[in-house]
Amino acid sequence: MSTTDLTTETAPTALARVRRIALPLVLSLIGVVGSLGASRGEPERRAADWFMVVLVLIGTVSLYWLQTRPIPVLWATVGSTLVYMLMQYAYGPVIFAFVIAVFSVIRRGYRLAGWTALITLYVGHLLGRLVLGINEDGVYQVLLVGTCFVVLGFIAELFRAHRDRVMAAARTRREAELRKAGEERLRIAQELHDVVAHHISLINVQASTALHLVDRQPEQAGPALSAIKDASKEALVELRSIVGILRQSDETAPRQPVAGLERLEHLVSRTSRAGLEVHTVVHGDPHPLPTGLDRAAFRIIQESLTNIVRHAKASEATVRIQYGEQSLVLQVDDDGQSLAGPPKEGNGIIGMRERATALGGTLTATRTPTGGLRIIANLPL
Fold first, then answer.
1. Mean pLDDT across the stretch 194-205?
2. Which of 73, 128, 180, 375 has the fewest Cβ atoms within 10 angstroms?
3. What is the spatial distance between Cα 308 and Cα 270, in angstroms, rounded to a whole number?
4. The three-state (H, E, C) secondary structure of 138-204, written as one string
């Protein structure tokens, strides 16, 4: 880890510690000095003494633990403030610690504890005055104090609601980022599957052909080996492109174009060299497609041809592309071995369907009248 990283990580912690110490220290100074000054200005009330200073310090010093133990701190300020008031010391800044504690507790979501503390201090003060026979304040002052307590509680509630909204928005953003990252990982996994499966299948077929011909007709093994070389080279280029996205490298982008229907002829030619004759039929007016749709269409056709090469005993395949006003329809048929019943859906068909579904489209796998496999994908524009 670099020095810059260490500075960035320790700075907030050091600032938090300074704030944690500064708040009770400053309030203690204000509380003690302010209470002593209020005593000199209110000679009719109880004179200042060491117990008054202790009560002030209990509330202010306890704020040091406000972030870690908010509820005990809250009740420490309630107790010290209530005793201070019932002892008839001069009115002063002793209430500040209680106000800060109540505000912080309610804002952090401890609503019941905060409102209970407000009611306890107010009712406790009223009952204590009655028990001790203190009747120096009129009804107006009593109602004013109660109103101030209610206003304090509602202000804290407003800040709590704002804090909850901010936290909910941050949580929503994090969930959206995680969901987006998961979708991107799935997309890259599908890309890797399609690239590797297609090229390895072609290499496997061409290698089998080369092994078959190398002893009997060595002069005809050359094209198969050449096809293996081309397929492996293209696989490496595409894999390098995908891994480059994962690494987010600044290397020069590969010259290989992004997979799309403009590479369909190259795909058909490469597949035909593996022994599968592929026919292409296009309906409608071809036009540029959105990048995501174009890539998905190409990969679906690629995976369909890969499945035919790997699993179907087919000699021909037909790729039909229909450009419509509302959707792009893909259909891939093969003349494979006549089979009964619905086709078994492996990872290839599942991956193709996920690509189509991600774009709001559909993909079905059925049998052709001759028993081959038919893939139909309907991708909305």
1. 66
2. 180
3. 14
4. CHHHHHHHHHHHHHHHHHHHHHHHHHHHHHHHHHHHHHHHHHHHHHHHHHHHHHHHHHHHHHHHHHH
